[in-house]
From TrEMBL:
UniProt superkingdom: Bacteria
Pfam family for this entry, one: Transketolase_C
Protein name: Pyruvate dehydrogenase E1 component subunit beta
UniProt keywords, alphabetically: Oxidoreductase, Pyruvate, Thiamine pyrophosphate
InterPro entries: THDP-binding (IPR029061), Transketo_C/PFOR_II (IPR009014), Transketolase-like_Pyr-bd (IPR005475), Transketolase_C (IPR033248)
Organism: Amycolatopsis bullii
Entry-linked PANTHER family: PYRUVATE DEHYDROGENASE E1 COMPONENT BETA SUBUNIT, PYRUVATE DEHYDROGENASE E1 COMPONENT SUBUNIT BETA
Gene from which this protein is expressed: pdhB
Gene3D superfamilies associated with the record: 3.40.50.920, 3.40.50.970
Length: 330
């Protein structure tokens, strides 16, 4: 019997974590304020009350300690889920992630598995300053040994966090914080159903004029742009990458061979980024199908600005539509 529930992204993550903990007593949650407070975004609300302080652990303000402890727990057979409070706080733990977490499975020829999930609220749009609004996902996608995922909707949030926890490889799970509690993004989810695999790209809107590829919070921007473009007689195909490492670009290649045009969209700065990699790979694989250069719509190559300037920094509908017009004019 199905159990349909209409959930926000935040609530979907909470229920996904709850189900993973119910199914496997080796799943632990740890991080700053994840217990009594339920996390600053309330994603872990109620979990310590129901599962106890031995499974939902409030940690010191020490990201390297959180990740290092998770590595040790994984060696002993646990499946730790670490919360980084804001994406900009992750860098004290960068050494643990890149030097240990990403390497131990390979270094031990598969004998030691690292089933660790690191949840990372990321992106802007919440009126905060630097260290609270950034997009560092390209840094981690560059490190072999890590899976990097970014969800954009409640369905993928619910099933994706469970699939990440079941993975024997470390997963960085990037969550669009400004969309956590968006009522407009509520979705009906059969919480007892069988999920599709979320470690793959997905066409979320079909079109023929141009392809727009995005991930995380930028997927909503792409879909809004596609809806606006339709009023102008343009048909945009929108692809949600979902998995950032390893990249699943098969659906992107197929789409570009159909439309002949690609706009890569992301909040992150453009230099040496995932949009750079997408542009390079599409040029390699789809050169003779392209009718125009691959264009990118991104954040600027500056530190994240003060809150009153972020609406000028973040890619929006108008910047996407302008890129589409530039592509069509080529």
């Amino acid at each position: 019997m199905s159990d349909l529930q209409k959930l926000t992204i935040g609530k979907a993550l909470n229920l996904g974590l709850r189900r993973a903990m119910e199914e496997d007593p080796k799943v632990l949650i740890m991080g700053e304020d994840v217990g009594k407070l339920g996390g600053v975004f309330r994603i872990t609300d109620g979990l310590q009350k129901d599962f106890g302080e031995q499974r939902v652990l409030d940690t010191p303000l020490a990201e390297s300690g959180i990740i290092g402890t998770a590595v040790g727990l994984a060696v002993r057979g646990f499946r730790p889920v670490c919360e980084i409070q804001f994406e900009g706080f992750i860098f004290p733990g960068f050494d643990q992630i890149s030097s240990q977490l990403a390497k131990l499975h390979y270094r031990t020829q598969g004998k030691v598995k690292m089933p660790v999930v690191i949840r990372v609220p990321f992106g802007g749009g919440i009126g905060a300053v630097e260290h609270h609004s950034e997009s560092p996902e390209s840094l981690f996608a560059h490190i072999p040994g890590l899976k990097v995922v970014s969800i954009s909707n409640a369905v993928d949030a619910y099933w994706g966090i469970q699939q990440a926890i079941r993975s024997d490889d470390p997963v960085l799970f990037f969550e669009p914080k400004r969309l956590y509690h968006s009522g407009a993004l509520r979705a009906e989810i059969d919480v007892t159903g069988t999920p599709a695999q979320v470690f793959s790209s997905q066409v979320v809107r079909e079109g023929t004029t141009a392809t727009v590829v995005a991930y995380g919070p930028s997927v909503k921007v792409a879909l809004d742009a596609a809806a606006a473009a339709e009023d102008e007689g343009k048909s945009l195909e929108v692809i949600d990458l979902r998995t950032l490492s390893p990249l699943d670009l098969g659906p992107v290649f197929e789409s570009v061979r159909k439309t002949g045009r690609l706009i890569a969209l992301s909040e992150a700065p453009s230099e040496s980024s995932l949009t750079s990699e997408i542009a390079a790979r599409v040029q390699q694989e789809c050169f003779y199908s392209l009718e125009a250069p691959v264009l990118r719509v991104t954040g600027f190559d500056t530190p994240y600005p003060p809150a009153k300037l972020e609406e000028h920094y973040l890619p929006d509908l108008d910047r996407v539509l302008h890129a589409v017009d530039r592509s069509l004019a080529w």
